[in-house]
Specification:
The complex is a heterotrimer of chains A (319), B (421) and C (328). By secondary structure, chain A is an alpha/beta fold. Helix content of chain A is 44%, strand content 19%. In chain A, the strands form two sheets. Chain A has a six-stranded parallel sheet with strand order 2-1-3-4-5-11, sandwiched between helices. A six-stranded mixed sheet of chain A has the order 7-6-8-9-10-12, sandwiched between helices. Chain C has a single domain, classed as ABC transporter involved in vitamin B12 uptake, BtuC, CATH 1.10.3470. The chains are: A alpha/beta (319), B mainly alpha (421), C mainly alpha (328). Chains in contact: A-B, A-C, B-C.
Amino acid sequence: MNKFATVIMAAAAATLLVAGCSKSDSSKIKVGFSQVGAESDWRKASTESIKGEAAKRANIDLTFSDAQQKQENQIKAIRNFITKGVDVISFSPVVATGFEDVLKEAKEAGIPVVLFDRAVDVSEPDLYKSLIGSDFVEEGRRAGRWVVENVGENANVAELVGTVGSAPAIDRKKGFEEIIKDHPGIKIIKSQSGDFTRAKGKEVMESFLKSPEADQINVLFAHNDDMALGAIQAIEEAGKKPGKDIVIISIDGVKSMFEAILAGKANCTVECNPLIGAQLFDVIEKIHAGETVPSYIPSQEGVYDTKNITKEVVDGRMY
Amino acid sequence: MNKTSNRFRHLVWPLVSLALLLLFNAFFTDNFFKIEIKKQDSAQTVQAPAVPDNPPAPGTSWITPENYENSSDSAEAAAKTVDQAGQAAQAAAEPQQAPEKNDGKGVSIFGYYLYGTPIDILNQGAKVMVLAIGMTLVIATGGIDISVGAVMAIAGAIAALLISMLDAGSFPGASMGPAIYWIIPVVAALVLATLAGFWNGMLVAGFGIQPMVATLVLMVAGRGVAQLITDGQIITFDNPGLVFLCNGHALFLPFSVWIVVTMYVVAGLLTRKTALGLFIESVGNNERASRYAGIEARRIKWLTYVICGFCAGVAGLLAASNIKCADSNNAGLYLELDAILATVIGGTSMAGGRFFLSGSLVGAILIQTLTTTMYMKNVSPAIVAVPKAMVVIIVCLLQSPVFRAKVLSIFASKAAKGGVQ
Amino acid sequence: MKKFKFPMRYVPISATILVFFVVYLIGIISFDNFGSPKVFLDLFVDNAYLGIAAIGTALVILTGGIDLSVGSIIAFTSILIAKMIESGCNALWAIALALAIGILFGMLQGWLIHCFSLPPFLVTLAGMFFVRGCGFIVSEESIPIKNDRVFDFIQNDLSITLSKGLHLRFIVMLYIAVLIIAIIFSQRTRAGRSIYAIGDNELAATLMGIPVGRTKIMTYTIAGFCSALAGVVYAIYLKAGNPLNCVGLEMDAIAAVVIGGTLLTGGVGYVFGSLFGVLVLGLIQTLIIFDGRINSWWTRIIVGLLVLAFIFMQNLITKISKSKSKSH
């Protein structure tokens, strides 16, 4: 039965892979974190921030799981964290719906949950202790305000929306529209989803630029920098000047976008801070110690455009 | 029956469908056929001096290693760039900047290139067109390869990784700069992809494993491998050489189109001017009989998978070059299905046997036209799948002899009834 | 004394079960709490929808065909149910409608495949695209299912609490029930044995007088039903519907079926094997999550290698049994 031997050997190899695991150390705070995936620079940066911060703190024992942008993987991860017996669960939900049952399980097991970056849509508010993240609506508002102040009263805006149904996409759109509804001259004439990725952003922008309204577009509002960077490529290929013919404003504040603004290819980026590893673990420690924490903790963010971006700022950009 | 009409019969339905689609667009989509002739803004600053005096060419990154690594000057350089660009933009509404020097890479003759939706279709569809070549040959032997999307991801990953490693190591102002460097990642990607094809061929031809399952292995594991290579990140790159693959232009058309044309010509010559095509068809038709006839069926099958892997490598490079980064999760996602669809629409039967490269080309163009039409109509990408599905079923039905027989019999009986009054 | 010969045909599935236990053992050794019964139950809860879908897929594969529309049907079903409940419809009607659509769609695919001799791969591929698009037409965003009496009843009252934190959920019981029915169907009923016959040699089956066309269409209908049922389970599992989810799930189902010992050429394998295929996949994922250090893309690589290992084994066994039958 040769194949049995092969199977056993494969299993043995798997053992070696896994055998190096240490048994848990009960003095540390065991944290289970489920990240959305690795779909953008922003997400990369937040992962590094969290892992780096956990490594720095000797009292944190982090179990990190990457959901590859699939909701099922996150639910499985959280369930397994509960079984594993972590002290605190933290995650950034891929999508807002569908977590109710697993969060109830966590509550039943007495494990507090801290949300990061995005909110969940649940019927009971006490299923999670706190949400640390950006106020996406405010980010949309900031973008809207910048357009009003810097572009003027008349603008035809093309909007690159984020992943359909995701909290950032919905909220940022809401915030932006909230501000511009008081300015009738500013209209969104095109709006389509670029899925938060560079490739889609480029593709959708290409189709915008071939539509009949192409020449009217003078502002591009992208829900994230990656889509804007893709769109910049499309604009250049169409023979227009990004940053000049079409004013570009987006959200996230990644380094590549800063560089683009410095080079004059884009105009403004509203920061969405992913480097909140420190903040996250502070809150986790507080919760573990039994303190109460605010249910919403906004991250520190600013607005960056040509006025406040210099070479030094770009170099100092960590993500 | 006329020999010529036999040779092109398989193209009838795909071409008819394509024509209908284009007709639809002509009437209902503005600007669909509008093709402009654009002049390139400037040459690619591949061998640029320390301070670039040319704004970068469209489609290349505005940061090339040269003009950014001279860190102290780059802010001024960028500022100069911005100024020049601003002046140039103000000069005319049309893009008629002063033609800049070519860097000798044959970027575009006279600096002009065509721009418009049909060009976009060709550019975006290039990936599927290339994949369809390999897929046609594999399907012709009665097999299938569903791993091409994952192989694309692997190819893109290794190319991006190597170029970023090479670029990091390059020193500022090097005269023999990234112009040459890009060859290494391209070759590495193609070699790796071909090896993947070799692996598939080994499983199918060497071990006799069913093609669907054999390639399922790589499809499942391949993206994992790609992510292993990139360490789970999306690696971006700016190397002008790599970027040129999908964004550059040559002789009025995007360079990707030329890659497609070349590959089709080579594949066509290889299969029709040598006995290879005949062998492939015979193996697909009846493998046992081919063996008895003395054809090395195993080797032929193996070869088709190797070619398919190579094509996937080229497509992967195109995909990565298009967005200037390697996204292991999304590169080539579902493209294997498009390639299979293109092949089938083109007249090649999934059971194997006769294959039609020209048909696959038309099929790929049809699929891409459909997709682009949907985008232009502002249809959400996911809903695009619905008409695609219907087109596939309709074309399959039209090609199915059973269906045609049934339809004909309905007409025949009606005629008979009409005749016998 | 007659030597006991372990029947060749049980080897693949025995191997799967063996792998399952070995991996489980590794987990228990390496991690605290891995031995908790919760791990085992969680495997079922988290994979019930996949398991039910895999049952339908297994039956189709046994006839020598394939079904790629599984994932899309699950997503479509879940969003349809969610949307209907949101619009005020009674959940039971929504579920009934969803199952009916699944049955009809499966029947349509089966009809196209059999009556026009279209390749199952293409028909179900088109079906996949079509249904996915339909899901988006229903709703572009995910919709939660809130405050619905039926769903709350299912969740709270229909589950058996074994101990604190340990529940035997309804969807798990449903999965086991469907599995048992499917096993009985495939092994003990004429229709079930016809499926095996068709998968093994369609021509011979036709000549034998087996109603091939009817059976094939029935198989695809069952697969459509299983996918829709999996969608219902998914909606219960998430308490939401999402048109974007379950992309690529059909490949997981196929992998589970292959690991479970079923040959893709058809005619060989056990529906029971799909259970262990699903469990093994879930177990590997659990191991990786527990570890927390291995990057999750290793899951894909390991699953790929597992599929490979099982293919080799099946290949070997087929060769051995062929050479044995030749020597007789």
